[in-house]
Write a structure and sequence with these properties.
CATH superfamily: Isochorismatase-like
Helix content: 10-25%
Structural class: alpha/beta
Number of strands: 8
Strand order of the largest sheet: 5-2-1-6-7-8
CATH class: Alpha Beta
Order of helices and strands: HEHEEEEHEHEHEH
CATH topology: Rossmann fold
CATH architecture: 3-Layer(aba) Sandwich
Radius of gyration: 17 Å
Shape: globular
Length: 236
């Protein structure tokens, strides 16, 4: 069993590791809201549009003011990135190719560095965000997770920043539930964070049932599936 799978299995068996066993209220000094990849390319009309992706924006804007610590992530790929189907002659979008770090799903060219499509949607109201993390910068390695690249070894730098800030709990929102949100949630659990995902503030791509599988994986890793109403509830 891979080490990170063993860690998640142990985490699920230990009640002290569950977010529910810790502080009941999200939004304190030890918490961060991580806004994942709410970029033009993932919104309606974009090159890799997530159905309903624009619907997460007002929910995120509603949640953000209650968090002192807000982090934004961006896919930020060079031209010819390994995740682009166009980089693999004869291959199609949603096919997989073997890479040293494992199977790589292929996508349309998206979030190319410096292009308008790679920009955050201007409808986000996150002027108080403290950090922007750009991921997937290396041509030969993808990075769904905001914490580790796809090789599961190379850090993006976010973990170090969170540790220096004393942050131990993460609330994840953004796009897409079954890829970048999922990967960030699982890596965060492996790194010892308590993690919650706000369901109304995420949307999935849902390729061949990937959305249901993602929620199941997160549940088994003790990632809390939050609603906006739960965040609005007073502390217990």
């Amino acid at each position: 069993m891979p080490v990170h799978h063993l860690f998640l299995a142990l985490a699920a068996a230990l009640p002290w590791f569950s977010p529910a066993a810790a502080e009941p209220r999200w939004g304190g000094a030890r918490d961060a809201l991580v806004v994942i990849d709410v970029q033009r390319c993932f919104l309606p009309g974009g090159s890799l549009a997530v159905t309903g992706g624009d619907q997460v924006v007002p929910v995120i804007n509603r949640l953000a003011p209650r968090f002192e610590n807000v982090v934004i992530t961006q896919d930020w790929h060079p031209p010819g990135h390994v995740s682009f189907a166009s980089s693999h002659p004869g291959r199609q979008v949603h096919q997989q190719v073997p890479m040293p770090y494992g199977p790589q799903t292929l996508w349309p060219d998206h979030c190319v560095q410096g292009t308008a499509e790679a920009e955050l949607t201007p409808d986000l109201k996150l002027a108080h965000a403290r950090l922007i993390v750009r991921k997937g910068l290396r041509r030969d390695t993808d990075s769904y997770s905001a914490l580790l690249e796809a090789d599961s070894r190379t850090p993006t730098g976010l973990h170090g920043w969170l540790a220096n800030m004393g942050i131990r709990r993460l609330v994840l929102v953004g796009l897409a539930t079954d890829y970048c949100v999922l990967a960030t949630a699982l890596d965060a659990r492996c790194l010892g964070y308590a993690v919650a995902v706000v369901e109304e503030a995420t949307r999935g791509i849902n390729v061949n049932g990937s959305l249901a599988r993602a929620w199941d994986q997160m549940q088994r890793a003790c990632v809390e599936r939050l609603s906006v109403e739960a965040l609005d509830a007073p502390p217990r």
